[in-house]
Amino acid sequence: MIFVADNLHIVNPVVEQAILHRDPGPIRDLVTRCVAAGAQAIDINPGPLKKDPEAAMTFLVNTVATATDLPLLLDTTNAAALAAGLAACKNPVIINGFSLEPRKIETILPLAKRFDADIVGFLLDERSRVPVDVADCLEVAGRLLAAAEKAGVNPARLIIDPVIAPLMWENGVRHNRAVVEVIRMLPDLFGLPVRAIAGLSNLTTGPGPKEKKRTAEVAFLAMLADAGLSLALVNIFHHRTVDSGAASEHLLRSDIFSWEGV
Amino acid sequence: MIFVADNLHIVNPVVEQAILHRDPGPIRDLVTRCVAAGAQAIDINPGPLKKDPEAAMTFLVNTVATATDLPLLLDTTNAAALAAGLAACKNPVIINGFSLEPRKIETILPLAKRFDADIVGFLLDERSRVPVDVADCLEVAGRLLAAAEKAGVNPARLIIDPVIAPLMWENGVRHNRAVVEVIRMLPDLFGLPVRAIAGLSNLTTGPGPKEKKRTAEVAFLAMLADAGLSLALVNIFHHRTVDSGAASEHLLRSDIFSWEGV
């Protein structure tokens, strides 16, 4: 399991201001702290980038590259920004991502072929709604795969994001149960070892006591790891979550156990 | 998932002395603290009880009953002690447990029928060795079930313990992977919603840093909960482990989510 930091996000005012003023310092500092905290990839989420999307994403990709050569996930719905970021990016790169929404199939999915990049497919229907149960999720997964193949994207490039729901949502618990099951079933469904990514911070969106939120993150990440999650998009500064995720990996995969790895 | 406290154990010198001197106070205090910490059942493990086994187990069962009416697991290999404890016990009771060892099939398993009690069956072979892989575990599970049926014990009374291995053991990680899978597969194998129990403290037996041991417990318990574990035998004073287990349950089963339950 690879830990992807979700911290470089437009909702962080420091990030917002740094993008606005093209100020590399705060971005570089944040990325350096993410790497020190255990990040193995960085998600760059500048929002929809209504103003100068190409210049903003190019600035971000180039700035982050001065701090790390880790893989970058370019996380915006703005296709022009994505194309500019992909063109500028020297780090390994993942497009994050597309869905069955026709606009995304038309404008974002082709970028995976054009730039020979991995791409995340969200398990959402055409209207960006979360399917609640396993069968619905698998049906959407099949359609994402078909769309990728139709666009000439190698299925091995596809990474599925089953979209963790906030626990507070109606049906949130039920959907999140399905998320774990779907991750476990995807390789069989696809007939190849398809990767899955999940954004853990979504789980505890909304009001709630901080300690309990962390405990829920810790427990749910262990379940996701057990189900075979490949990339965990997390607040990398939640060290209990990261420690537990690392321990899960060690419990699941180590050939020769030692406490050093936990 | 029911939390069973493993704290009333002969390796605790307080327990050892209290049994030796038939001193109810320390036992009652310990049980009261276990209940306050979240125990939903109490495992009574007085060791093999070489001296006065019937009197010692009767004393324990009666003493614990003065502190709680929670279910009790009678955890000894001494059949005479078990029979005396089962006769004396007013609390709901579980025999913990039998294995394919011929002596246990002959002397312990029949007690489940005689006292109409739940009984734990350990996934160990005739020589009390841990089978490493899933197929071997399932084969032993089938034989435990057959032994129970032959002894006239209702299969619904059987609780399977796949015996968590210390991580430090050769093949410990590999076996523990199998433990999680076996728990997931048991209901299908048995054709009934057979319960599983697992002793989590085994996981971290041996030298190792305390914090990392707890982190491993927390992560592994979430996986076990996800797999469908019915009873978790834990050190009930490991509050991070218990909190995480409770959160796992809430993530897995709640119909209407609230942070109160986490």
From TrEMBL, chains A, B:
Domain Pterin-binding positions: 1-253
Database matches in Pfam families: Pterin_bind (PF00809)
Superkingdom of origin: Bacteria
Molecular-function annotations in GO: methionine synthase activity
Organism: Desulfosudis oleivorans (strain DSM 6200 / JCM 39069 / Hxd3) (Desulfococcus oleovorans)
UniProt record, GO biological process: methylation; pteridine-containing compound metabolic process
Keywords on record: Methyltransferase, Transferase
Protein name, entry field: Dihydropteroate synthase DHPS
GO (cellular component) term, any one: cytosol
Family per record: Belongs to the vitamin-B12 dependent methionine synthase family.
